[in-house]
Design brief:
This protein has one domain: oxygen-dependent coproporphyrinogen oxidase (3-Layer(aba) Sandwich). It has eight helices and eight strands. Helix 6 crosses helix 7. Strands 1, 2, 3, 4, 5, 6, 7 and 8 form an eight-stranded antiparallel beta sheet that branches. With 253 residues, it is of the alpha+beta class. It is globular and about 60 Å long. Pfam families: Fe_bilin_red.
Length: 253
Amino acid sequence: MTLYQPFLDSAIALLQKRLDLQPYPIPEGFESKSALVGKGKHQEEVLTTSTAFQSPKLRQIRAAHVQGGKSLQVLNFVIFPHLNYDLPFFGGDLVTLPGGHLIALDMQPLFRDDPEYQAKYTQPILPIFESYQQHLPWGGDFPEEARPFFSPAFLWTRPQENEVVETHVFAAFQDYLEAYLNFVDRAEPVTDPQSLADIEEAQLRYLRYRAEKDPARGMFKRFYGSEWTEEYIHGFLFDLERKMAQAGLKSVT
């Protein structure tokens, strides 16, 4: 079993328990993709699998799981709410490379500079964030341009040992997801036209940024080629604009 399979299994089990889950369509060719990398006895198969669900309040719950042996394992797990809820995004990036682990967990705010929004969605999870600081200290610099998309409860850490990932990171991932689902439980639909336009604009701003700056782009291109990679990013991982175009909805931005 790979390092992050238990994370994915526990997340799906929790989602099934808490939500009315339905499958989310995964475009053909993206459910599973493999490639051989390296040469001779160093050759490894890299397997990327996709999982996706939806629920009445959540437009897309999706995971991309990359398994490439001990030195390459990635789980990118993201939840996008429907556009008539002001819920933040849930984001989990769990990355293992030859140099160690890169862990990012957050409920990424739609409106980071709005004190009311922060009081509603960040203040309640700060105690969870703080409870893990002892074992999961701040991971250091990350891009300045990314800062508007993260909350003050952004858990960003670089543990060296697998054991820390299997224990403290696993517990933090579960606690953040549980807290997020509590927010989902209480979420009420937004009906005010201006608020709906603001939510759509904030979601598109985030998705465009993530699609443009996806750190996995180079890795996927190396394994699977440019055409597959761009279609995977825009047609599945960050597909809101594509879905809106298919539905004939005009973006407000």
